[in-house]
Every structure is written in structure tokens, then in C-alpha cells.
Design brief:
- It is a single chain.
- The chain has three domains: 193 residues, MFS general substrate transporter like domains (Growth Hormone, Chain: A), CATH 1.20.1250; 54 residues; 237 residues, Growth Hormone, Chain: A (Up-down Bundle).
- The protein is 76% helix and 0% strand.
- The chain has 19 helices and no strands.
- Helix 5 packs antiparallel against helix 12, helix 8 runs parallel beside helix 16 and helix 16 packs antiparallel against helix 17.
- The protein is globular and about 70 Å long.
């Protein structure tokens, strides 16, 4: 499809130009695919990295969490930068930095340069991701056109995690682990060239100074929170280090809110946070991703440590989730949102996810894939895709186009923090249950698989609880906010795409970082 009759909001002011929306969608989806891929692709390669670089297990975690910390901490800044300085400019700068950092990571010969490269990748990804989704919002008109684009964009992002696991296994066993990073270099160069050629230039907001103080406090605060949550798996929630990082994070976020209420050009306009639709959608997104990320984390360990799957076989097992997410996001979600409304669509999705998690909570230590895992994975694929598309539709109701980038940054930040929190909580519960069972059985190595299976079952129940709370939020605060935003507080909750979508964000379902091995995992390794 081509058009020369309109310029998307944020496009060139010089006059109409030829725009190919389908090509723009493909390019921004490709950028998002790279960002999500690198969250997942490193996990399978960790043992090879540890062996080749001579790293200790305590050092290895930084290869994983550094990317997530910088990405989650800088998303708001990246979203605001896209609004202020131009979306195409920020997208290409972000992809360029990401590509250079990938080259540095692939050439790294020790821990320090590898971790530094991973941090730079996170910075580039935090610039590229919100810029890509805001370009999508400004390119497609409200209604079925934009909803279909959202479905494709979400499906591409959702499939990147599973592709990353499979690709990591293939590259690690083939040319070697450096190629999990080096593969980004030619793809990144090609994407930047095509984006500069086919995506319209979007001017920034002239005469606006960057909110440096707000950027520093929110970035440091979110990084402290995410780091504290991540470390709670190893150190426990009551440890001094965990509580210290969480306290510092909360204090910095409070300081950020105070700063934003006083500056003339805030990083995050507080009026956005006062929108009931954005608040409810943000909470819903955090709950959806908390359940999903935790499940991917748990299931990866369950399949490899209990069922003895290889890394490649584990990745292939996730194809059920990826394919269902692809179909549901691209073909089903836009139609369901148009018929029953975004809030009810999210509730339907989380009911499906909860059902899948309840099935996983019954998986035994000798689980058969077709009988015990496949049905649950299919339900999870449908559930997460319906839920994420619905949440993003509601999040952008009433958001001005020039603030779409920062709104997307808010939602994506909730995704990163929610995923880290959900993984930490579920992992803590699973580890505690596994240790309890192992101790009761006498601590024998032969009983470790049974103990791990018990932990997986308990963790799946907790993840199902997150989905249940998401259903309550969807049918309560989110449903009310949806009606009020549409100016029909007493009307039915049927929301047409043209009414519901004022902007959108991509669905991201990355595979969360692999935490340090738990005591049971160490026992199994021994």
C-alpha cells in the first residue's frame, strides 16, 4: 500500500511525500525484533561464554542482566528523546549504537569489554524501541489499518524470544558464541540504510531543553529497582543488599516525580500518568508480563534440568508459544478488540494464560511434551498475544501524537520492571519449594529432579495468580477507564478500533535473564 495524500504526524513539514506503510511496518518491526532477540539469544550461549572466557558463575550473570538493566532504565529517556529530537533520527542512532556494540561484544576477549558492550547494546535498544513504536503509531490511521499493524508488530516482537533461543543454540554449536552478537552487524547496517531511505523524517520539538535531572533520577531509580529485584532471587527479599537497592530506587523515583512537577519540559508529563486508561493498561501490562516471563524462565530450567532437553530442543519446544502468539496477535486480537473491547479482550487472554499455567502446575518430573507441556504452551501463546495487544490499544487512548514516544516508554518500562519482579517472585517461591522437598527426601542427588518439578509446579501456581489479578484489573479499573475515555460511562464495552486506538505500542515478550543457579541447581550440576 502506498500513499502520497497525507504525511503522518511527526513527518516532514515540507509537504506530502510518498509513504509505503507496509514497508515502514516491516522496518520498524525488524528493529524491534533485534531488540527482543538479544534479550533471549544470550541465555543458551552462557555455558560456552563461561568456558571460553574463563569466567566464574558469579561473573557470568553480568553478561545477561547488564543489557536488561540499561534497557529498562533508559526506555523513558529514549521515548522522550524520540518525541523531542525526531523519531527516525533517534531510531537510526539507536540502531547504529546497537550494531556497533554488537560488533564489540562479538570481539570481546574478557569479561569487562563484553559487559561494557552489553551495556551499550541496552542504551541503543532503549533509544530504538520506543522510537520504532511511535513511528508505527504516526504512520497508520486509527481503525482496522492500525490494529492490523499492531497485530503484525506484536507478533514479530513476540516471536523474537523463541527465535532467539533456537538461533542461539544453532550459532553456539556452529561457528561459536561470538556469532550470537556478530549476526546483528549486517542486519543492523541494512536496517539503518533502509530506514533512512523509506521512513519519513520526523522533526523534533524546537526550542525544548532536555530534562537532564529527570532523566538521571528515573534512570538510576529504575535501574536500582530492577537490580534489587533481580538480586532478590539469590540474596532473598529481606537481605540488606536487596532492601538497600529497593529503598534507593524508591527514593529516586519519588525525587523524579517531584522534579517532573516543577520543570517546564518534563521527561514524563505527569498529566499522562493521571490518565486512567494509561495507568490501568500499565498495571495490566506489568501483571501479564510478570506471569509470562516467569513461566519462560521456569520452563527453560524445567525442560533442561528435569526433562534433560538440550538447549536446541528447549528452543524448539517454545515454537508452540511463538506460532500461537504470531497467529493470535496478527489475526485474532484485532478482531476480538473490535468486537468486545480491549478490556474484555485482555481478560479473555489472561483467563487462557491462567488455564495454561494451571496445566503446567500438574506437570510431573517425567512429563511428556505432547501431553503435559504442549497444551499449556498453546494457551500461553494465545493468552499473552491477546493481552498485550489489548493493553497497548487502551494505553494510547487520548494520548497526543507528539507524546506517543514517552507513553510507549512508560508501557515498555512497566513491561521490563514487571517481568523482573514476576521472575524474582516466582523463582524465589520455586527455589524455596524445591529446597524444602529435597531436604525432606534426605538431600540425595537422585531426588533433585523430583524436587525441581515440585518447585516448578508451585511457581506455576504463583504465575497463575498474576494472571488472575490481571483479569480482575481488566474487568474492573481497565474496563471503567475504557468506558470513560470513550465518553460512554454507561455504554456497553464494545470498542471499535477507530474509537479505541489513538496510538499503540509493540508487544514484547522477551525471555528473561537466567539467574544465578539456585542451591538445587548446583546440586544437580554436581
Amino acid at each position: 500500500m502506498e500513499t502520497t495524500t497525507r504525511t503522518p504526524a511527526g513527518g516532514s513539514a515540507a509537504g506530502p511525500r510518498r509513504i509505503r506503510p507496509g514497508l515502514v511496518l516491516a522496518l520498524v518491526s525488524g528493529a524491534q525484533f533485534m531488540v527482543v532477540l538479544d534479550i533471549a539469544i544470550v541465555n543458551v550461549a552462557l555455558p560456552s561464554i563461561e568456558s571460553d572466557l574463563g569466567l566464574a558463575a558469579s561473573d557470568l550473570q553480568w553478561v545477561v542482566i547488564t543489557y536488561g538493566l540499561t534497557l529498562g532504565g533508559l526506555l523513558l529517556l529514549g521515548g522522550r528523546a524520540a518525541d523531542l529530537f525526531g523519531r527516525r533520527r533517534v531510531l537510526t542512532l539507536g540502531l547504529g549504537l546497537f550494531t556497533l556494540a554488537s560488533l564489540a561484544a562479538g570481539l570481546a576477549g574478557s569479561l569487562a569489554p563484553l559487559v561494557a558492550a552489553r551495556a551499550a547494546q541496552g542504551v541503543g535498544a532503549a533509544m530504538a524501541s520506543p522510537a520504532a513504536l511511535s513511528i508505527l503509531v504516526s504512520t497508520f490511521r486509527e481503525g482496522p489499518e492500525r490494529n492490523k499493524a499492531l497485530g503484525v508488530f506484536g507478533a514479530v516482537g513476540g516471536s523474537a524470544a523463541a527465535v532467539g533461543v533456537i538461533l542461539s543454540g544453532a550459532l553456539t554449536t556452529g561457528p561459536g558464541w561470538p556469532w550470537i552478537f556478530l549476526v546483528n552487524v549486517p542486519v543492523g547496517i541494512l536496517l539503518v540504510a533502509l530506514i533512512l531511505r523509506f521512513v519519513p523524517r520526523g522533526p523534533g520539538v524546537p526550542g525544548v531543553r532536555a530534562d537532564v535531572a529527570g532523566a538521571l533520577t528515573v534512570t538510576a531509580g529504575l535501574m536500582a529497582l530492577v537490580y534489587g529485584i533481580n538480586r532478590s532471587v539469590e540474596n532473598g527479599w529481606t537481605s540488606g543488599s536487596t532492601l538497600g537497592f529497593l529503598a534507593v530506587g524508591v527514593a529516586l523515583v519519588v525525587a523524579f516525580v517531584a522534579i517532573e512537577s516543577r520543570v517546564s519540559a518534563p521527561l514524563v508529563p505527569l498529566r499522562l500518568l493521571r490518565r486512567p486508561t494509561l495507568r490501568a493498561a500499565t498495571l495490566s501490562t506489568a501483571l501479564v508480563v510478570a506471569a509470562f516471563f516467569a513461566t519462560i524462565f521456569q520452563a527453560s530450567l524445567f525442560m533442561q534440568q528435569v526433562l534433560r532437553y538440550s538447549a536446541l530442543r528447549t528452543g524448539v519446544a517454545y515454537l508452540a508459544i511463538a506460532l500461537m502468539a504470531l497467529v493470535a496477535a496478527a489475526l485474532v486480537a484485532p478482531r476480538v478488540v473490535g468486537r468486545v473491547g480491549a478490556a474484555r479482550t485482555l481478560a479473555i487472554g489472561q483467563v487462557a494464560s491462567a488455564a495454561g499455567l494451571l496445566l503446567l502446575s500438574q506437570a510431573p518430573a517425567d512429563a511428556a511434551y505432547a501431553r503435559h507441556l504442549l497444551p499449556a504452551f498453546l494457551l500461553l501463546g494465545v493468552g499473552v498475544s491477546l493481552s498485550n495487544v489489548a493493553a497497548q490499544v487502551v494505553a494510547f487512548v487520548g494520548v497526543a501524537d507528539e507524546e506517543a514516544g514517552v507513553a510507549g516508554g512508560i508501557v515498555e518500562t512497566a513491561r521490563e520492571v514487571g517481568g523482573a519482579l514476576g521472575t524474582a517472585i516466582v523463582a524465589s517461591v520455586a527455589i524455596a519449594r524445591a529446597d524444602e522437598v529435597l531436604a525432606a527426601l534426605g538431600g540425595r542427588v537422585a531426588d533433585v529432579p523430583l524436587a525441581l518439578a515440585e518447585g516448578f509446579q508451585r511457581g506455576s501456581l504463583v504465575a497463575a495468580g498474576f494472571s488472575a489479578v490481571a483479569v480482575v484489573v481488566a474487568l474492573g479499573p481497565l474496563r471503567r477507564a475504557e468506558r470513560v475515555a470513550l465518553g460512554r460511562p454507561g455504554a456497553e464495552d464494545v470498542v471499535t478500533p477507530a474509537e479505541a486506538v489513538a496510538g499503540a505500542a509493540a508487544t514484547v515478550t522477551p525471555v528473561p535473564p537466567v539467574a544465578d543457579r539456585a542451591p538445587v541447581g548446583e546440586c544437580l550440576a554436581d
